[in-house]
């Protein structure tokens, strides 16, 4: 693979966006490579969690404006409809957003436009002090279309979603932490180690329980309280695994 580096170690999938000369902007080639990676990650029973980060100074600058934005500008309604189930980042923003295993974003630099949406699509976000976030789509005559509004609203609430979306302003890692968009801010050289720490905590838990909890959290969004409580109870008490971390004893 050229645009993505994919490595596996200690039950963790490492996914490095590798178009540093273009701030890791997503083109069709990267999208296709990531789609294959997510398929492998989901199917590989030796992998319990994934860490996504960017090579170079950026996490991801969103869609490659030179090659991908013109396709959308000239798209018909049928063209758009045909892509509803294939979102950014190999579909992890939409279409592959129900991966059963946790995905951690190690945000090493700029996560803007679709790159912000990609980070929000991950289950946990750790930010370097050098990270910045922003809804930059607004400057190009479009707003978020890959979960940016939906996930911002769910994670940070109406006021923050209105603020960041309508202004398109850039925020730093500390403000992202204050707005509950990231779990932790660390020095740049501690970023991957911290992401690995979170992955290790996940790996230390029962795999069936982790998968069920993630499913339950996603299914509870927008539910009436009574329905959400029933869903939580049923999933919790029906997810017991015979063996820790999947099946075979360690």
Q: Could you list the spans in which at least 5 consecutive residues all have pLDDT below 50?
A: 246-250
Instruction: Please give the count of helices.
Output: 11
> What percent strand?
15-25%
CATH topology term of the largest domain: 2-enoyl-CoA Hydratase, Chain A, domain 1
Series of H and E elements:
EEHEEHHHEEHEEHHEHEHHH
Head-to-tail CA distance between termini: 32 Å
**CATH classification, class level of the largest domain:** Alpha Beta
Q: Considering the protein shown, what is the CATH homologous superfamily of the largest domain?
A: 2-enoyl-CoA Hydratase, Chain A, domain 1
CATH architectural type of the largest domain: Alpha-Beta Complex
Strand order of the largest sheet: 1-2-3-5-7-10
Give your account of this protein's structure.
The chain has 250 residues and is an alpha/beta fold. It has eleven helices and ten strands. The protein has helices spanning 28-43, 69-73, 77-82, 88-91, 114-121, 148-156, 158-167, 173-178, 191-203, 207-220, 225-237; strands at 4-9, 12-17, 49-54, 58-60, 103-107, 110-112, 124-128, 132-134, 170-172, 184-186. The strands form two sheets. The chain has a six-stranded mixed sheet, with helices on both faces. Strands 4-6-8-9 form a four-stranded mixed sheet. α6 (148-156) crosses α7 and α10 (207-220) packs antiparallel against α11. It is globular, with a radius of gyration of 18 Å. The protein starts with a strand and ends in a 13-residue tail after the last helix. GO terms for molecular function: catalytic activity. It holds the Pfam family ECH_1.
């Amino acid at each position: 693979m050229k645009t993505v580096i994919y490595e596996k170690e200690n039950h963790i999938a490492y996914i490095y966006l590798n178009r540093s000369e273009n701030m890791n902007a997503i083109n069709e080639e990267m999208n296709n490579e990531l789609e294959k990676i997510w398929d492998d990650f989901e199917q590989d029973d030796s992998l319990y969690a994934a860490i996504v980060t960017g090579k170079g100074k950026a996490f991801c600058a969103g869609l490659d404006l030179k090659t991908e934005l013109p396709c959308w500008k000239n798209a018909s309604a049928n063209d758009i409809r045909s892509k509803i189930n294939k979102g950014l980042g190999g579909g992890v923003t939409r279409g592959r957003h129900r991966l059963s295993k946790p995905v951690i974003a190690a945000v090493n630099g700029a996560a803007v436009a679709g790159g912000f949406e990609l980070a929000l699509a991950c289950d946990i976000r750790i930010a370097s002090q050098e990270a910045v976030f922003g809804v930059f789509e607004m400057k190009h005559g479009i707003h978020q279309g890959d979960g940016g509004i939906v996930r911002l609203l769910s994670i940070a609430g109406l006021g923050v979603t209105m603020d960041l979306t309508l202004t398109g302003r850039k925020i730093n890692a500390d403000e992202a932490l204050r707005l509950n968009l990231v779990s932790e801010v660390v020095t740049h050289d501690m970023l991957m180690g911290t992401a690995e720490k979170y992955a290790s905590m996940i790996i230390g838990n029962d795999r069936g329980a982790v998968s069920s909890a993630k499913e339950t959290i996603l299914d509870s969004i927008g539910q009436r309280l009574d329905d959400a409580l029933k869903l939580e109870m049923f999933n919790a008490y029906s997810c017991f695994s015979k063996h820790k971390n999947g099946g075979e004893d360690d």
